[in-house]
Amino acid sequence: MTGVRLEPLSGAHLTGLRELIDDPTIRRFTRIPDDPPAGFAEQWLGRYEQGRLTGECEAFALFGDDGAFLGFAGAVHVDREAATAELGYMIARAARGRGVATQALRELTARCFAQDLVRLELLIAVANVGSQKVAERCGYTCEGVLRSKHVKELLREDTQIWSRLPTDP
């Protein structure tokens, strides 16, 4: 993989979003419902489009140099007053293991710091070792475990909290 391009999420990316939503591995480690209702992709996109206008969140579709859709990365919640954001990413099955998540998180991190955010956070399931490795490669620090954190529906699991500050190496 030579490059990952971040493009503001829009209706042009609905097919890729639907593929991510349909992936059981992605549903396992994200807040996407296990049985997404009809129209979920459109509602999800609408939330990010509205959030972009209010500054409460921002999302990007990920593309490779060849134009292939690779996934999603975003600031899923931004608190401008506290200058913090929770970040997240989802990589399409065919793009996993190629460094896409690492490149996307590095770029997203740089964009957030350029917008004067001073603390970025990742919430990662203890069982999601791959995502933990991405966080570590991108300079995030694991601060600890939030025990029995509510994730979605009836799922409660231990969740690591990772952070990065602009002063971190």
Write the layout of secondary structure elements.
Layout: E1 4-8, H1 14-22, H2 24-28, H3 40-54, E2 58-64, E3 69-79, E4 84-91, H4 100-114, E5 119-125, H5 129-137, E6 141-152, E7 155-164
Parallel strand pairs: 4-5
Antiparallel strand pairs: 1-2, 2-3, 3-4, 5-7, 6-7
Helix pairs in contact: 1-3
Number of strands: 7
Total helical segments = 5
Class based on secondary structure composition and strand pairing: alpha+beta
How would a textbook summarize the main sheet? 7 strands, mixed
- Assign the CATH topology of the domain at 4-118: Aminopeptidase
Distance N to C terminus: 24 Å
- Assign the CATH architecture of the domain at 4-118: 3-Layer(aba) Sandwich
User: Which blocks of ≥5 consecutive residues have pLDDT under 50?
Assistant: none
What is the averaged pLDDT score?
95
In CATH terms, the superfamily of the domain at 4-118 is Gcn5-related N-acetyltransferase (GNAT)
Amount of beta strand:
35-45%
What is the oligomeric state here? single chain
Inertia-based shape: globular
User: What is the CATH domain class of the domain at 4-118?
Assistant: Alpha Beta
